[in-house]
Amino acid sequence: MSDKNHQDDDMTDFAMNETSRSSVTSGTGTVLPGQERYVASLDETPLHEVDSMDESAPASNMWTDAWRTLRRNPLFIVAGVLIVFIVFVALFPGVFTHQNPNYCQLEHSLEKGGPGHPFGYDTQGCDVFTRTVYGTRTSLSVGLLTTLLVVIVGTLIGGLAGFFGGWIDAVLSRFTDIFMAIPMLLGAIVVLQMFRTSSSIWKIVLVLTLFGWTQTARIARSSVLETKNLEFNTASTALGSTPLRNLVRHILPNSVASIIVVGTTSLGSYIVSEATLSFLGIGLPSTTVSWGGDISNAQAILRTDPSVLFYPSAALAITVLAFIMMGDAVKDALDPKSRTA
Amino acid sequence: MGKYLLRRILQMIPVVLGTTLLVYALVFALPGDPVKAMFGDKPINQAVAAQIRAEYNLDKPFIIQYLLFLKNALTLNFGNTFAGQPVIDEIARAFPVTIKLGLMAFVFEALFGVVFGIISGLKKGKWYDAVILIVSLLLISVPTFVTGFLMQYFIGVKWHLLPVTAGNDPGFLDLLMPAMVLGSVSMAYIIRLSRSEISSNISEDYVRTARAKGMTNRSVIVRHVLRNSMIPVITYLGQDLGALMGGAMISETIFNIHGIGFLTYQSILKGESNMVVSIVTLLTLIFVVCNLVVDMLYAVLDPRIRYA
């Protein structure tokens, strides 16, 4: 008890010494004329107004910051409007056309556009406008589902590799290298040969995922590696967090930005890949309305009637463009390094 | 450096083995019996069928088949196709064409990609920057085969500037348009990559320091900004060189070029498993070696990276 008191006394002594010493130094400094330090009075410069902080306002974080940057970016607005429109067309194609995309009459073959059929007809006498509208759903589903699966698989494998390091990292990284070394198109063709009879879009989604997850895994790995060694993790560990809690609460939320960026940007490339596979004749069967299939059918009549090829290609290009622009905007907003530029 | 190289080469071994095993498993899991297909409509002679199966090692368990394939591949003996042709002969016939096409595409994308990327990165906001950016976005969002058709239609058929298709033994002019189509998407990516690298590097502190030292604008750009900006671009180019060989499939199909891509596509459709596995093995090797070369180049370009 007495010991503690003594200690306390010491500390007060020390504190007193400190204050007295500092007051001495400031007191003894002789100020020559013309050397007075000018201190603006608070009335003249209302600093408190500038520095004051609204403490009741919700705390800002990376996501609200990013959202604020995004809202002001014209690229984001254009891409956002386009994507909302594309999603709407994919969900409710019936709003835009009352026809059945598979209802084709040969007597209309290659007829020019007229009222109700603005884009004309293809070789089989199908309405190009209706097929373009209905193709939206296929392409968009393939793009979105593939991106979703790629992000899940890639984050899981890359995240685990980066988080655990050591031999787990070595094994998972070599595993990623193996899949990365197979060209996507080549691998996809080999696998799709096995499922020629299936007509569901899932076969395309799964095949694209099988050869597409490697990029996300690499980015997730390096991002987790980078975040793992940052100070807030050490601090959190010092406060008694388990590694798992660190992973879920700190590492993943901080790594997710780069994964979102690569996901948004590659969404478009999956849509292009689906179209390419349909062009090679091993993608979706002709019963499924898809832009890729329509473009590849229109190829034969390119020299006589290029408009049949034009419309589905344009729809595809606009969709991919919208997602690339969205990816760019999100990247600008989430990556503080590129924000300054 | 020597130690690092050795470690990298040792790391390549499991990757090459894994990739070939994966492709082998995928290809031989393909439905259909190639031996049955050889007989066509004729009744199957069991004795002959068994002999053929033995010849192609089809009677052995999968893993033995794979090991035998590897053993033979080491001596560049890839066996015969089911049609009886030695696989290596077919590859040797198709490969030079694809190498020519791939290198032309590579030079095209590297040259135009970097030049346009630099122009647009240094002159951000000018009208030609906007034009370059829009064209590169369009090239990315339009599928290669559509770009290919359009170029074939306009440049080849309508304006007669370049040959429409390339036949056997194509020359430089025959391959020019296919190479442009093959390299177009990568060129667009390189433009975007170098543009964003340059514009972010130009506001770095070391650039300001260099200017403060009194360096001329020209040498600041060339010796500091460009040198630092080109590192990611070279990574991309290195990975792409390997990918171009595999990606040649579309452009070879459109322009009727009998190269590796065309051969692979035909072999997959015909179920020539031996051919597919052999080609993919070669492509994987090329891809892995390209990546290694890129990593070695890093040390030359960036003095901060030193491999112990």
UniProtKB/TrEMBL annotation, chain A:
The chain crosses the membrane at residues 75-96, 144-168, 175-195, 309-330. Residues 1-31 are annotated as: Disordered. One of its GO terms (biological process) is transmembrane transport. Gene3D superfamilies: MetI-like (1.10.3720.10). Residues 136-327 form the ABC transmembrane type-1 domain. It holds the Pfam family OppC_N. Residues 19-31 have a biased composition (Low complexity). The keyword Transmembrane applies. Its main location: membrane. It is found in: Cell membrane. It is a multi-pass membrane protein. It comes from the Bacteria. Belongs to the binding-protein-dependent transport system permease family. This is Peptide ABC transporter, permease. It comes from Bifidobacterium bohemicum DSM 22767.
Automatic annotation (TrEMBL), chain B:
Keywords: ATP-binding, Cell membrane, Membrane, Nucleotide-binding, Transmembrane, Transmembrane helix, Transport. It comes from the Bacteria. PROSITE patterns: ABC_TM1 (PS50928). It is a multi-pass membrane protein. GO terms for molecular function: ATP binding. It is found in: Cell membrane. Gene3D superfamilies: MetI-like. Residues 95-298 form the ABC transmembrane type-1 domain. SUPFAM superfamilies: MetI-like. CDD domains: TM_PBP2. GO terms for biological process: transmembrane transport. One of its GO terms (cellular component) is plasma membrane. Its main location: membrane. The chain crosses the membrane at residues 12-30, 101-119, 131-155, 175-191, 233-255, 275-301. The keyword Calcium does not apply. PANTHER family: DIPEPTIDE TRANSPORT SYSTEM PERMEASE PROTEIN DPPB-RELATED, DIPEPTIDE-TRANSPORT INTEGRAL MEMBRANE PROTEIN ABC TRANSPORTER DPPB-RELATED. Belongs to the binding-protein-dependent transport system permease family. This is Peptide ABC transporter, ATP-binding protein. It comes from Bifidobacterium bohemicum DSM 22767.
